[in-house]
Amino acid sequence: MNIAYFKDMDSLYVEISPENPARSWEAHEGIVLNLSEDGRVVGIEIEKASQATNLDILKIGGFPGQIEIIDKNTSGSTH
């Protein structure tokens, strides 16, 4: 699973599965679900993300895997 923020588009994307979506569905204004061929959600896009949420804070708890924080200002670091 990956979470990426695209500042130039003000879009937050949660990639649930690395496969290419077969189709998209706007579940709510500004919330787009990307679906696989068999209807599974493979990604979630939040448009105008800076207006929808506080992007200064990202809390992740109870995640079993490694958390990697990529910050262009520090050439990337892993926590």
What does this structure look like?
Helices cover 5% and strands 41% of the residues. The strands form two sheets. The chain has a five-stranded antiparallel beta sheet with strand order 1-2-5-4-3. The chain contains one helix and seven strands; from the N terminus they run βββββαββ. Strand 1 and strand 2 form a beta hairpin. It is mainly β and 79 residues long. The protein has one domain.
Quick overview of this protein structure:
This protein has 79 residues and is mostly beta strands.
Task: Give the tags.
single chain, 79 residues, mainly beta, two-stranded antiparallel sheet, 1 helix, 7 strands, globular, disordered C terminus
Overall form: globular
Task: Note the total helix count.
Answer: 1
How would you sum up the major sheet? 5 strands, antiparallel
Assess the beta-strand content as a share of residues: 35-45%
State the separation between the terminal residues, measured CA to CA: 16 Å
Global structural class: mainly beta
Cα-atom Rg, whole angstroms? 14 Å
Q: Report the mean per-residue pLDDT as an integer.
A: 84
Name the poorly predicted regions.
74-79
How do the strands of the widest beta sheet line up side by side? 1-2-5-4-3
How many discrete structural domains?
A: 1
Extended strand count? 7
Q: Could you state the order of secondary-structure elements as H and E? A: EEEEEHEE
Helix content: under 10%
Protein name: DUF2283 domain-containing protein
Organism: Thiobacillus denitrificans
InterPro entries: DUF2283
Pfam family, one: DUF2283
